[in-house]
Write a structure and sequence with these properties.
The complex is a heterodimer of chains A (561) and B (349). Chain A is an all-alpha fold. In chain A, 76% of the residues lie in helices and 1% in strands. Chain A has helices spanning 2-7, 14-47, 53-58, 61-92, 98-104, 113-124, 129-138, 154-179, 182-190, 195-224, 227-231, 237-246, 251-276, 298-336, 339-370, 374-383, 391-416, 422-426, 429-452, 456-464, 469-498, 501-506, 514-522, 531-540, 542-555; strands at residues 93-94, 294-295. Chain B has helices at residues 2-21, 39-53, 66-73, 87-95, 105-110, 167-180, 182-195, 204-213, 223-230, 236-244, 273-284, 286-296, 309-313, 324-329, 331-340, and strands at residues 30-35, 56-61, 81-85, 123-135, 159-160, 218-222, 245-248, 259-266, 299-300. The chains are: A mainly alpha (561), B alpha/beta (349).
C-alpha cells in the first residue's frame, strides 16, 4: 500500500490509499468477469489455423468492408444530425408540441430494428400501401411500368437503423445540454454570438463527449446488427461472420472475423480519445439558473415541429399502428402461447440487468476517477468492449466460462444434491451475465461522461470534510449524476427487452421472452403472427421512456421543479 | 437511494436466478430437446407425444449456437436430443462428435437407409424438395424442366431466389457440384446469377409473392412453403400467390429433384437417453409422420404414410437419390462458389 502511495503522483494519506486499493481491485475484478467471454472469443480465434482469409480476400471481403463502412457512415451522420438537432430544439426552444417531443423523441428506441425493417418494407414494397396508392393514381399495372427505389437495400438499412438508433444520441445530447451551465452560453451571447453561433461554438463542443458516446453506441449497434441487414440483403461484415460460422462450419474463423471487428472498434475509440485528450469538459461555474427558452414562431416553429415529428412518426407511430393492425388479426396465437409469462420474463430480466449494469458501470467509472493508475483505465475499457462483438458470437464466448463454472458446481453438486449442469440448464444467470457483458458499455459510458462533468474540486471538498470515497460518491456524485444514470438504466432496460441472440442461446429450457417469442416467427418473416408480442416490446418501452424524460428534466441542477 | 439500489439489485438477482433453479431437468419422465425448428411447428407433435407416453418434452429453440452450447457444457450437457432441419446441420453435429449411436429396430424399419446415418448417429424425419414455382401465365408447360436450364439466357431477368447463402440453396448448389463437378457448377451459378430479376432477398415465400406481382416468372423454393401459402386462411392473399404459380419438379427425366431432410439425433451423455430414443422413434412413426405431412406439408419418410392431399395433387416426386452426406460434405465448396461468383450481389446488367 505504501508503495502505491509513493508512486501516486498526488500526495494522499495512507488511509485513503487503502480505500483506493479496494476500488482498484473492484475494477480489476469486473474487468476479469466481463473480459472472460471476450478473451474466450480471442482464444477461439487463434486455436484454428484453417485459412478462410485467403478465400474471403479474393472474393467478398471487399464487399463486406465497403458495405459496412457505408452503413456506418450513413447511420453515424444520420443519428448525429437527428439526435443532436432535436435535442437542442426541445431543450432550448419552445414551439408547438415541444414538451411532448421531449419524451416522444425517445420512443423509436423501443422498436427493434428488424421489426421496423419488416414494417417499412411492408408499406413500401410492391404490394405495400404506398405503391398500391401510386399505381391507383397513375394507372400503372406492372412493376416494369415505373421506377421505385428498392427498399431491401443499403439505403433502406441506413434509414431503418438511423431511425431506431438516433435516440441514443438524442438522449445523451439532451442530458448534456441540460447539464450545461447557462453562464457559458450567456457569455457567448454577450460577446455578440448569435443563438446558432453559441450553439456551435459553446454548447456543441461542451456536449461533445456525450454526443460521441451516443454515436459510438449507435455504431456498435450497427456493427452488431444481423436481423436488419439480413432482411435488407445487405452484405455487412457481421453477415460474413455468420456465414463463416454456419456455412463454412468454422467457429474459429467467425471468432477471427469478430476479433477484426473488435480491433476496428478499438481503433475508433482510441482515435476519439486522442482527439479529446487534454481537454476538460466539466463546468467551471456553478450557476445553474433556468435555461433560457427561445420561443419559435411562424416558419421556424413549423420547421422545428417537422424536424421533431418526422423521426417519431416514422420510427414509432407508423410501426405501432401497423403492428396494432396485425395484432388485431393475430392476437390469438400470441395469447395461446403463454404470453403473460413472456411479459413477466422479459420485464424481470431487463430490470435486473439494468440495475446491475448501472451500479457496476457507476462504480467502475468512479474507480477510474479515483485511481491514478493507467492499468485501471485499461481494465475499465476492456470491460466495456463486449458491445462491439456480435451478440451470437459473444454468447458462444459466454458459454465456455459458464461451462467451466458448471463443472465446478457439479463436482460439489454431488454432495449438495444440485442437478447436473444446473447453472446453464436451469437458471437465467447465463442470460444476465451475457447482458452485462454486452451492455456494460452503455452504463459505463454514460457514467463516465457524466462523472467528467463533476469538477474534481467537489471531490476535493468532500474528502477534505472527511467523507470516504464511497461517502463522496453517495452524497455528491450520485445525486448529480442521477439523470445520466437513469438514462443508462433505461437504455440497458430497453436494449435487453429487444435483445435476441444472447437470450436465445443462453436461456434455459422452456423459457421464452417476448423477443424470443417474436423471433420464432420473425426468423421466417412472419412478424404478423407474433405482432402482439412485438407490440408489447414496443409498448413496454413507453413508460420507462416517459419516466426517463421527466427524470432528466428534473435532474438539471437548479431546476425549479 | 444508492444503497437501496444496491440492495434491490442483489435481491432481485438472487430471486430471479433461484426462481427457475427449481426446474427439474432430469426427472425420469422427461426429455430435454434442442430444436432448430420453431416451437409453433413442433408443438403439436410434442403435445401428442406427451399425451401418449407421459414423457414431458422441455425445449430450447435456437437456430445457431446450440452445437457450441453442447460442447461448452461437456459432460454436464443437459440436452438429450437435437431436432433440426437441413442435412448440413446434422452433419456438422455428427462431425463435432456430439451425437451418440442409436441402434433401433423401429428407426431402421421406419426411416429408409439413404435418409439416415449408417452408424445410427442421425435420422431423417421428413423430406422437402427444392422446386421451381413458375408463373402459370408467363411460363409454358415444358419451358423449364431442369436445374441446369436455370442458367439458360432465355430466362434472363425472370428468376427470383433467396440468398445464395441460405442453407437450402447451399445444399442445392452442393448437389450440383456432386453431379457436375465444381467448375461446371460455377459456370451454372454465374448463369443463374445473370438471369436473376433482382438481388437475392427474402425467404422462399417472398419469391412466390414476387412471381404473383410480376417481378419475375420463376421462383426457387421448398415444397412446404407452397403448402403453407395455399392453405393460409388467415392471410388469404397468400392463396393468390400460391394460385399464381405452377409447381415444377425439376430433372424428373434424369436424376430427380434435389431434396433435403429435417432430422434428429440423440446426444452423447444424454441423461434421459431412453426417453430421447423413444421420442425420435415416435417422430418416425406413422402418427407423427402423418402430422408432419398434414400440418407442415412435408414429405414423410415413412413408406406407409402418404403426403397431404395437396402435396399429392402436385404429382409424383422423383427425388435425387444422392447420399445426404455427399451433399453435406460439399457445402463448404458450395458456399465458397457463392462468394466467388458474388451471387448475392444480384444481376449486374
Amino acid at each position: 500500500m505504501t508503495t502505491i502511495a509513493a508512486e501516486a503522483p498526488r500526495s494522499r494519506s495512507l488511509r485513503l490509499t487503502g480505500r483506493l486499493d479496494r476500488w482498484t481491485l473492484f475494477a480489476f475484478f469486473v474487468a476479469a468477469l466481463i473480459g472472460a467471454p471476450i478473451a474466450t472469443v480471442l482464444i477461439m480465434a487463434i486455436t484454428d489455423t484453417s485459412d478462410i482469409w485467403q478465400h474471403l480476400y479474393n472474393t467478398v471481403l471487399g464487399t463486406y468492408v465497403q458495405q459496412t463502412l457505408i452503413l456506418m457512415i450513413g447511420v453515424g451522420v444520420g443519428t448525429t444530425v437527428i439526435g443532436t438537432s432535436t435535442a437542442w430544439l426541445v431543450t432550448m426552444c419552445r414551439f408547438p408540441g415541444s414538451k411532448i417531443f421531449e419524451w416522444a423523441l425517445l420512443l423509436p428506441l423501443a422498436v427493434p430494428g428488424y421489426v421496423l425493417a419488416f414494417v417499412i418494407t411492408d408499406q413500401l414494397e410492391y404490394a405495400g400501401t404506398v405503391q398500391v396508392f401510386l399505381r391507383d393514381i397513375f394507372g400503372w399495372t406492372r412493376p416494369q411500368d415505373y421506377w421505385f427505389p428498392e427498399i431491401r437495400s443499403l439505403p433502406g438499412a441506413i434509414w431503418v437503423l438511423t431511425l431506431v438508433l438516433y435516440p441514443y444520441v438524442y438522449l445523451l445530447a439532451r442530458a448534456a445540454f441540460l447539464e450545461q451551465s447557462v453562464c457559458a452560453l450567456e457569455v457567448a451571447r454577450t460577446l455578440g454570438k448569435s443563438s446558432w453561433g453559441s450553439f456551435f461554438s459553446i454548447a456543441l463542443p461542451l456536449a461533445r463527449p456525450a454526443i460521441v458516446v451516443g454515436v459510438m453506441l449507435a455504431l456498435m449497434e450497427v456493427l452488431n446488427d444481423f436481423g436488419t441487414v439480413d432482411y435488407f440483403a445487405v452484405q455487412t461484415f457481421t453477415v460474413g461472420i455468420f456465414d463463416v460460422w454456419l456455412n463454412m462450419n468454422s467457429t474459429a474463423g467467425a471468432a477471427q472475423l469478430s476479433t477484426v471487428l473488435l480491433a476496428f472498434v478499438l481503433v475508433l475509440i482510441v482515435l476519439e480519445r486522442m482527439a479529446r485528450r487534454g481537454k476538460k469538459f466539466h463546468n467551471t461555474s456553478m450557476k445553474y439558473s433556468e435555461l433560457p427558452s427561445y420561443r419559435l414562431r411562424g416558419k421556424r416553429a413549423v420547421g422545428a415541429f417537422f424536424m421533431c415529428a418526422a423521426p417519431v412518426v416514422l420510427g414509432f407511430v407508423l410501426p405501432a399502428i401497423v403492428l396494432s393492425n396485425y395484432a388485431l388479426k393475430f392476437y390469438e396465437e400470441t395469447l395461446a402461447a403463454n404470453y403473460f409469462s413472456f411479459v413477466v420474463n422479459s420485464l424481470t430480466l431487463s430490470m435486473t440487468a439494468a440495475v446491475i449494469a448501472v451500479l457496476i458501470g457507476l462504480f467502475l467509472a468512479y474507480a477510474v476517477r479515483l485511481s491514478p493508475s493507467p492499468a485501471v483505465k485499461i481494465a475499465a475499457r476492456a470491460a466495456s468492449i463486449g458491445y462491439a462483438i456480435p451478440g451470437a458470437i459473444l454468447a458462444v464466448g459466454v458459454l465456455w466460462p459458464l461451462g467451466a463454472l458448471d463443472s465446478m458446481i457439479s463436482m460439489f453438486g454431488d454432495y449438495a444434491g444440485l442437478a447436473i449442469g444446473a447453472l446453464m440448464a436451469g437458471t437465467i444467470v447465463p442470460i444476465l451475465y451475457g447482458y452485462l457483458v454486452r451492455f456494460l458499455a452503455l452504463a459505463y459510458g454514460a457514467a463516465e461522461s457524466s462523472l467528467d462533468k463533476v469538477t474534481p474540486n467537489m471531490d476535493g471538498a468532500a474528502r477534505t470534510l472527511g467523507a470516504t470515497p464511497f461517502g463522496a460518491l453517495k452524497s455528491i456524485h450520485f445525486p448529480l449524476m442521477r439523470g445520466s444514470l437513469m438514462t443508462a438504466g433505461i437504455l440497458v432496460f430497453v436494449d435487453c427487452m429487444k435483445e435476441l441472440p444472447l437470450t436465445i442461446i443462453l436461456r434455459p429450457f422452456n423459457f421464452d421472452t417476448l423477443a424470443t417469442f417474436v423471433y420464432q416467427y420473425a426468423s421466417d418473416e412472419l412478424i404478423e403472427e407474433s405482432a402482439l408480442g412485438a407490440l408489447t416490446i414496443v409498448g413496454a418501452g413507453i413508460i420507462p421512456v416517459i419516466l426517463l424524460s421527466v427524470t432528466i428534466t428534473r435532474s438539471r441542477p437548479g431546476s425549479s421543479s | 437511494m444508492l444503497k437501496r439500489l444496491i440492495q434491490f439489485s442483489c435481491l432481485s438477482a438472487v430471486i430471479a436466478s433461484s426462481a427457475i433453479i427449481a426446474l427439474p431437468v432430469q426427472a425420469a419422465d422427461e426429455v430435454n430437446l434442442y430444436s432448430y425448428r420453431q416451437p409453433f411447428l413442433i408443438q403439436p407433435l410434442m403435445t401428442k407425444f406427451t399425451e401418449q407416453t407421459g414423457i414431458k418434452v422441455n425445449v430450447v429453440f435456437a437456430k445457431k449456437g446450440m452445437l457450441e452450447k453442447i460442447q461448452a457444457a461437456g459432460s454436464n450437457n443437459p440436452a438429450d436430443a437435437v431436432l433440426t432441419v437441413d442435412i448440413g446441420r446434422l452433419y456438422a453435429l455428427k462431425q463435432a462428435g456430439v451425437f451418440d449411436a442409436v441402434k433401433s429396430d423401429v428407426l431402421e424399419a421406419n426411416v429408409p437407409a439413404n435418409l439416415r446415418d449408417p452408424g445410427g448417429l442421425w435420422f431423417g424425419l421428413t423430406q422437402r424438395a427444392r422446386i421451381a414455382m413458375v408463373s402459370k401465365e408467363r411460363v409454358k408447360e415444358s419451358e423449364l424442366t431442369t436445374y441446369e436450364e436455370l442458367a439458360d439466357p432465355k430466362f434472363k431477368g425472370r428468376i427470383c431466389i433467396r440468398s445464395g447463402k441460405n442453407a437450402y440453396n447451399v445444399a442445392l448448389i452442393a448437389s450440383m457440384i456432386a453431379h457436375k463437378g465444381e467448375s461446371e457448377t460455377k459456370t451454372w451459378l454465374e448463369g443463374l446469377k445473370a438471369n436473376l430479376a433482382r438481388k437475392p432477398q427474402g425467404n422462399d415465400r417472398a419469391q412466390a409473392k414476387a412471381v404473383y406481382e410480376g417481378v419475375c416468372d420463376i421462383a426457387i423454393a421448398n415444397t412446404y412453403y407452397l403448402g403453407a401459402m395455399a392453405t393460409n386462411d388467415k392471410k388469404p392473399e397468400q392463396k393468390k400467390w400460391a394460385d399464381a404459380v405452377r409447381i415444377t419438379f425439376l430433372n424428373q427425366a434424369d436424376r430427380g429433384a434435389h431434396v433435403n431432410v429435417s432430422g434428429a439425433g440423440v446426444l452423447k451423455n444424454a441423461k434421459n437417453r431412453d426417453a430421447a430414443v423413444k421420442l425420435v422413434e415416435w417422430l418416425s412413426g406413422k402418427e407423427a409422420q402423418a402430422i408432419y405431412a398434414e400440418v407442415n406439408h412435408e414429405y414423410p419418410v415413412h413408406k406407409d404414410v402418404q403426403p397431404s392431399a395437396l402435396v399429392a395433387s402436385w404429382g409424383d416426386l422423383k427425388a435425387d437419390n444422392l447420399g445426404m452426406e455427399d451433399i453435406a460434405r460439399l457445402r463448404e465448396a458450395a458456399t465458397k462458389l457463392v462468394d466467388e461468383v458474388k451471387f448475392n450481389e444480384g444481376p449486374t446488367s
